[in-house]
Amino acid sequence: MREVIFLQLPQLDNDVEGDHENVPLAAAYLQHAAERAGEDRHYRFDRLPAGLEDADGPALAAYLAARRPAVLAISLFLWNIERSLRLARVVKALSPRTRVVMGGPEVARRHPFLFRAGIADAIVVGEGEIVFPKLLRAYRAGSSVDDDTVALLGPSGYRWGRTPVPEVDLRDALPPPSHPACRPDAQGLACLETSRGCPFRCTYCRYPHFRRRMTFLAPREIAARIRALQALGAREIRFVDPTFNAHPAFREVLKTLVELNRDRRLRFFVELAAERIIPADSEALAAANVTEIEVGLQSRDARVLEAIRRPTDVAAVERGVRLLAGRGIRVTLDVMYGLPLQRLRDLRESLPWARRLPGVEVQCLQTLLLPGTELRDRHREWGVVADPRPPYGVRRTSTMTPKDMLNVEERIQSDVRTRRFVGRSLPDLFTEEVSVDLVAWRPGIAIPGTRNRRAVRLAGADLFGKCGTLQGVIRQAIRQDADMLWQFVLEPCQEEPLDLLDALVGTIRRQPAHLLDRYAAASLRNLIASRRVFVRLPPGRRFDRGWVQAAEDVLASALF
């Protein structure tokens, strides 16, 4: 039996308290599609063991190369594409016969660097349920595929197929709830797709490029799946539909949810168009125990909404949001900045307006110039300038300057910054802590540990005198794995010159930027989020309060 391993690298952040979700929906759908096509007679399917998702690049590469799968199927998102490409390159070098297949929301025909990397044997754009079994069949038969959503790597680069691929029918694509890949996670969270496609054609979004037609599950099918998920231990169900109330039988679906959940043991999360909500809808959503709803407004400026192809009755959105929040449902209202034709005035008016809505949480998001979107194709028309690498954040437009963008970020204070850089207790340290012997360490000696979020303890007397060694440790760590998150924890015996902290921060700044540093919350303030320096004060030793505060100020002014 040949082996297929599905890989979806998780999103990394500095949060040490929240759960880190990485729902493998693509793996479930693709495995089910392969099984329906009979490829399970020739292949066995697997994913990373639960404990390995948090492993660093070298550990993952060693594991995958040792398994030597016939196919490594990788789901690409903007937060993992760079790391996935680097990992796949190492795996291919160690296991040359492994075929690498890449797909996911990040894949677009004119991607800025995916095809130039030349790593994947096959790259699939859009839905993969139809073409993935064909690829598996072709690999074992020594043949090829000619589908127009698949690019195959050859001697002269990638070649797209020519045969049109039909859109997937959702009823065929969804694996049964009993499928091992669909079971609720350890917290009782399960995801359910009841519609595929989107009624909107927003210029900044990928959905319009994946398919034109929407397909839906019938209310009775939705009910059957919810019952099955609940029997498997689901306590919360997240509907992953981009617009839940685009379902033509939306109100019948609501009635079904109310009847199924009279004991309110289940919680539901949905995204919907608030302008379509009437009082009876909000009442039914609350009765069904829909506890969280996300609503996209984006902007209150009619010209901006027209430019992004999202004409919206703002007054109707407000009415709908008030109806939902009035029923005790937690509503998150999305506003964006950096959209075409948008001015700072729009944000100055929209944010206070949204925050005045009772029971509503406002989420203000930087516009991203995603590959494969109409906005990216037409960015010059609107004077849009964005980062060339993920997350492709928009930095200026013809109507907003970088200073305007910073103004917005300072107003919203998005993301939580490090609570404390210097102290006897540091609440933001990662779980895995490893020590480096500064006396014995030499350039080239690997930093110990295996996890992708790691704190490196650097203790000793006269750390300032060991500044060169400390800088070497930082460079070695980042060279060892540039995609993970590092914390360098100094443990001094006495007050050290603050120039030491400046030198270490300067060393970090000279390294290639990490994805986390490119997000607006850090990048617009010129702060570093991915590699941070801490000072942990040892017990039993006194430190001058003025020095402690000065050290805190140095680090807080440079690090996120």
Description:
- There is one protein chain.
- This protein has 560 residues and is α/β, with parallel strands linked by helices.
- It has three domains: 2-160, Response regulator (Rossmann fold, 3-Layer(aba) Sandwich); 178-412, Aldolase class I (TIM Barrel); 422-556, no CATH class.
- The chain is built from 20 helices and 22 strands.
- The strands form five sheets. It has a seven-stranded mixed β-sheet, sandwiched between helices.
- The model has no long low-confidence stretch (mean pLDDT 96).
SSE topology sketch:
Elements (H helix, E strand, L loop, with lengths): L1 E6 L17 H12 L6 E5 L9 H11 L3 E5 L5 H14 L4 E5 L10 H4 L4 E3 L6 H11 L8 E5 L2 E4 L9 H4 L15 E4 L2 E2 L10 H4 L4 E2 L2 H13 L4 E4 L10 H11 L6 E6 L6 H9 L2 E9 L3 H6 L6 H13 L3 E8 L6 H12 L4 E7 L7 H4 L7 E2 L7 E3 L5 H11 L9 E2 L8 E4 L17 E8 L6 H14 L4 E8 L6 H11 L5 H4 L1 H4 L7 E6 L8 H12 L4
Helix pairs in contact: 2-3, 8-9, 9-10, 13-15, 16-17
In a nutshell, what does this entry contain?
The chain is of the alpha/beta class. It contains 20 helices and 22 strands. It has a 7-stranded mixed beta sheet with strand order 2-1-3-4-5-6-7, with helices on both faces. Strands 8-11-12-13-14-15 form a 6-stranded parallel beta sheet. Strands 18-22-21-20-19 form a 5-stranded parallel beta sheet.
The Rg value, from CA coordinates, equals 25 Å
User: In total, how many domains does the architecture comprise?
Assistant: 3
The spatial strand order of the largest sheet comes to 2-1-3-4-5-6-7
Whole-number average pLDDT? 96
Q: Could you estimate the helical fraction of the residues in percent?
A: 25-40%
- Range of strand content: 15-25%
Q: What form results from the Cα inertia axes?
A: globular
Q: What is the CATH superfamily label of the largest domain?
A: Aldolase class I
Known CATH architecture of the largest domain: Alpha-Beta Barrel
Q: How many helix segments?
A: 20
The N- and C-terminal alpha carbons lie at a distance of 48 Å
Biggest sheet overview = 7 strands, mixed
Based on secondary structure, the structural category is alpha/beta
Quaternary assembly = single chain
Q: Within the CATH hierarchy, at the fold level, what is the topology of the largest domain?
A: TIM Barrel
CATH class of the largest domain: Alpha Beta
Low-confidence stretches: none
Q: Strand tally, please? A: 22
